[in-house]
Amino acid sequence: NPWWAPVLRLLGLALAIGVLLAALVWRISHNTGRRIAARIERLADECEAISAGHATQVTADAQGDEIGVLSRTLNHALGAYHHINQNLEAVVAQKTKALSDSERRFRGFFEDNASVVLQIDPHTGRVILANRAAAHFYGYGLEELMAMHVSDINCSPQKTSQAHMALVAHQDRHSFIFQHRLRSGEVRDVEVYSTPM
Fold first, then answer.
1. pLDDT, tens only, 36-90
2. Are 142 and 135 in contact, with CB atoms under 8 Å apart?
3. How far is 167 from 22, CA to CA, in rounded Å?
4. Which of 2, 79, 97, 197 is most exposed, with the fewest beta carbons within 10 Å of its own?
5. CA 34 → CA 28, 39, 43, distances in Å?
């Protein structure tokens, strides 16, 4: 039938154009998907390198889509992090130096003090630190004195000592009279001035 021939040709042409368009759309979407996947993989790899410490920033992506915005935002965040980290390192170095200077001053004050100075753990009663004046007064070496318990030198009943320590802890009283035993066995009355550290 003569009218079927043009219709079939048109249908065949439409079918061929449809197949070509489908192949073209598939090819474009496939290439676009590969490019997007490659960009995402690159960004993920760079993030892993940053977390492992092998890199400090991601490659800037100039695209205007979400991946480009994400990479630029991540770079800004990493820049801010590095700036904060540098400032923090400077502050830590400054505080460490101040702490070292403070410790050196304390050690000088503590060790060179002419008064007998003992630092005692209030919970255990163990002598933590002793200065040379304490070692001289009690007749022990510094290492021996720092291996002792306060009850080794304090002759007062333990309950009395604990009550006095409680007063010191609450800052109600700081000065007490105790009897302390020296290495020689001699017992002396001593005025103890206590303060929590």
1. 998 889 888 888 888 888 878 888 788 888 888 888 888 888 888 889 989 999 9
2. yes
3. 90
4. 2
5. 10, 9, 14
